[in-house]
Amino acid sequence: MKVSILGASGQLGTALQLCAPPHTHIRAYTHQQLDISDREQLTAITPCDVVINASAYTAVDQAESNIPAAVAVNTIGPALLAEHCETIGARLLHISTDYVFGPEQPQRPLKPEDPTGLPATVYGRSKLAGELTLRGRPEVTTIRTAWVYSGNLLPDHRDFLSTMIRLATGDPAQEITVVDDQYGNPTYVVDLARALWDLVAEENSAELLHLVGSGQATWCELAREIFQAIGADPQRVRPISTAEYPTAAPRPAWSVLASSRALPEWRNGVFRAVTGTL
Ligand SMILES: NC(=O)c1ccc[n+]([C@@H]2O[C@H](COP(=O)([O-])OP(=O)(O)OC[C@H]3O[C@@H](n4cnc5c(N)ncnc54)[C@H](OP(=O)(O)O)[C@@H]3O)[C@@H](O)[C@H]2O)c1
């Protein structure tokens, strides 16, 4: 099986390479090697069985003031990539996000077929537009995920887990406040990568899937679990409201997804991520 990976130095792109099944021939393209928004550069991807698009403009707050950059990578790029995949006869697995859902959502796990409404952020709208450019293409599967963390598996990558580990091992007198009124599915990047490799092994898959860790949590609950896992006192984390932690891009209060496949429970993932194990 020949598989090409875009966004190869990102959190998911790296985990995909670490978890690759034996006898998989991987061609991994970093942003430096290949810009997804450049049609010419995409021709570097030679015929293969599957292309996984793990590249994205993921700076959610910066996207609010840099719309062209977000659109180029999250909307135009996937459309150009899908055209190229059709040319070389490859299946495309494209990664999307819970942020495609707008703010007015029912308080139940959201299914792939649920209407998204209008996303509240530039990042969410650029990713939703990217999804829409791929609709109706039989060779493409779009996979939405959420709250992806890697912790000590990828120490150079700054994610929520590594931030919390740093705070938990720092000054014990420092007050740590974390938002407790936003709900989502913490997803260990290794579990996501493994589920994606399962999809690669299948002949074909549904047009739109959700892949997230089992169970739901608030950011504060996740932070306390991280503290617990590394032997720090979880009560050092004080819950606050979204209103007390303003961000340039508004965060969804409810983005719990119904996973199309059962991934390990999020607390299990936290335990492995703090020790950096697969
Ligand atoms: N992280 C999360 O919590 C989360 C949640 C929901 C969905 N997702 C989705 O999951 C996927 C993987 O996310 P991630 O956490 O692995 O993000 P990430 O760590 O930010 O990785 C994204 C990668 O894309 C690369 N990239 C940016 N612009 C590019 C371009 N023009 N051409 C080619 N590559 C480019 C980046 O390279 P540079 O850094 O060198 O620019 C980076 O290596 C994305 O589709 C994201 O939207 C992530």
TrEMBL record:
Q: Which GO terms describe its molecular function?
A: dTDP-4-dehydrorhamnose reductase activity
Pathway involvement of the protein, from the record: Carbohydrate biosynthesis; dTDP-L-rhamnose biosynthesis
Q: Carries keyword NADP?
A: yes
The biological processes this protein is annotated with in GO are: dTDP-rhamnose biosynthetic process
Keywords in alphabetical order: NADP, Oxidoreductase
Q: Which GO terms describe its cellular component?
A: cytosol
Query: Its biological function?
Result: Catalyzes the reduction of dTDP-6-deoxy-L-lyxo-4-hexulose to yield dTDP-L-rhamnose.
Q: By its UniProt entry, which NCBIfam families does this protein fall under?
A: rmlD
- Its name, as the record gives it, is dTDP-4-dehydrorhamnose reductase
